[in-house]
Write a structure and sequence with these properties.
about 350 residues, mainly alpha, MetI-like fold, 2 domains, about 75% helix
């Protein structure tokens, strides 16, 4: 990978992030509602509302407000103050983001693993009963609303497996009897580092249902792409030559075909992660997961524009970074790739 290409991709990433900031800022000022009135209360004195409007800088021209916001955002990482919590938005994100990060990252890893596995099996057993079964199951997942599947899982596990956790991040009893010192905010990682296996086990069980929901509903995207890529690779001349020389099917797939199959899968990691961040909103509400999903829903209902903009910019930053990382990984997986 050339330095020129990397510099160009970094420039494009910064430009994309700036575009997200412009769009979110514009939309926040188009949507009906006065943040000053919301912060002060609808029955507040007009003088109080006007004072709050001055404190929030809403009395300034729109271009000046945007310039101030961009300066604070990029130079000080200041996203403003939440109308709901009265705290800086960056502090709220630090509090809520670890729960979403843990849920979405584990789901993404399983989506990639199961997606590649089912895609490769489907391609190798093309047009067989196994191929049709995999395609039907995965497509049913992507066609199924996340909230509906989450509710069905809750009902099934609550009725069949009595006592199985169906909401929250960990049991209250485990957290009280075995206090967990917050380090990263990720329960599994923090409890493993502190060897707090009671909280670790409880957190792992609480992750099962929301992770299964997200994995089942989004694995079809990786399955379809890995299947198409594997079918394309299996018909390449070098694969036919290797097969003709007597190379076993397993070695043929793992050593020769799988590497080229991974390239299109890596390219969509950022897109899948973006879909997960969007899909986790309803999932977090249903499973009472204290993450960004619940936070942004509360912000939307209360027209907390700084919080909404903060969550949007954070999500966009993650997706842009993952897309950049995916490009670099493609060059590592397949060194023959050349970037102009």
């Amino acid at each position: 990978m050339s330095g020129h290409y990397l510099l160009r991709r970094l420039s494009l990433a910064i430009f994309s992030l700036f575009g997200v900031v412009v769009i979110t800022f514009t939309l926040s000022h188009i949507v009906p509602g006065d943040p000053a009135v919301i912060a002060a209360g609808r029955i507040a004195d007009p003088k109080v509302v006007e004072h709050i409007r001055e404190e929030m800088g809403l009395d300034k021209p729109l271009y000046e407000q945007f310039a101030i916001y961009v300066e604070r955002l990029f130079l000080k990482l200041d996203m403003g103050r939440s109308i709901i919590s009265k705290r800086p938005v960056i502090e709220d994100l630090k509090a809520y983001f670890p729960a979403t990060l843990e849920l979405v990252t584990i789901s993404l890893v399983l989506i990639i693993l199961f997606g590649i596995l089912t895609g490769v099996l489907s391609a190798v057993k093309r047009d067989t009963l196994l191929d049709h079964a995999i395609r039907v199951i995965t497509l049913s997942g992507i066609s199924m609303p996340e909230f509906w599947f989450a509710i069905i899982l809750q009902l099934l596990f609550a009725s069949i497996f009595i006592g199985f956790p169906i909401d929250g991040r960990a049991s209250i009893g485990a957290l009280i009897n075995h206090p967990l010192k917050p380090i990263t905010g990720l329960y599994l990682l923090d409890s493993a580092l502190q060897r707090n296996w009671a909280v670790f086990g409880s957190a792992l069980l609480h992750l099962v249902l929301p992770v299964v929901t997200l994995t089942f509903c989004y694995v079809a995207q990786v399955t379809r792409i890995s299947r198409a890529a594997m079918i394309n690779v299996l018909y390449q001349d070098y694969i036919r030559t290797a097969r003709a020389t007597g190379v076993s099917t397993f070695k043929l797939i793992v050593k020769h075909a799988l590497r080229n199959t991974l390239i299109p899968v890596l390219m969509i990691i950022g897109m899948v992660y973006g879909f997960l961040l969007g899909g986790t909103v309803l999932v977090e509400l249903i499973f009472s997961w204290p993450g960004l999903g619940r936070y942004v829903v509360q912000a939307i209902f209360r027209l907390d524009f700084p919080a909404i903009m903060g969550v949007t910019i954070l999500g966009a930053t993650i997706v842009i970074f993952l897309n950049l990382l995916a490009d670099m990984l493609c060059a590592v997986v397949n060194p023959t790739v050349r970037y102009n």
